[in-house]
Amino acid sequence: MEQTWALKREQLMKTYGYVDEDAIDPKKVRAYQFRMQGQDTIITPLIPTENGFPAETFNEVIWQLNEETYAFQIGEEDGEDE
């Protein structure tokens, strides 16, 4: 499994133009997720996986922005923007 991930990581880095110096060793950093709950902020440590730090709050925002962008693009293609 480790060798397979290493190969995939190498391929991804090459595809997107990353070099080893761009990578962060998850053993040397910590990441936290901040979420509002009423008037309180809940801070949760993120546990790294072989793919990095899963950050649900980032994914939610990215999903919403993609949906919004897609909605505007569909409108432009249908001539609805005029």
Considering the chains and any ligands shown, give keywords for the structure.
alpha+beta; two-stranded antiparallel sheet
Q: Can you summarize the main beta sheet?
A: 2 strands, antiparallel
**What is the number of E strands?**
2
Specify the helix fraction band: 40-55%
Could you name the ranges where pLDDT drops below 50 across 5 or more consecutive residues? none
Distance between the termini: 53 Å
User: How would you sum up the global shape?
Assistant: flat
Report strand order across the widest sheet. Answer: 1-2
Decide which structural class fits the backbone. Answer: alpha+beta
Task: Outline the structure in words.
The protein has 82 residues and is of the alpha+beta class. Helix content is 45%, strand content 17%. The chain is built from two helices and two strands; from the N terminus they run H-E-E-H. It has helices at residues 2-16, 56-77; strands spanning 31-37, 40-46. The protein has a two-stranded antiparallel ribbon with strand order 1-2. The mean pLDDT is 84.
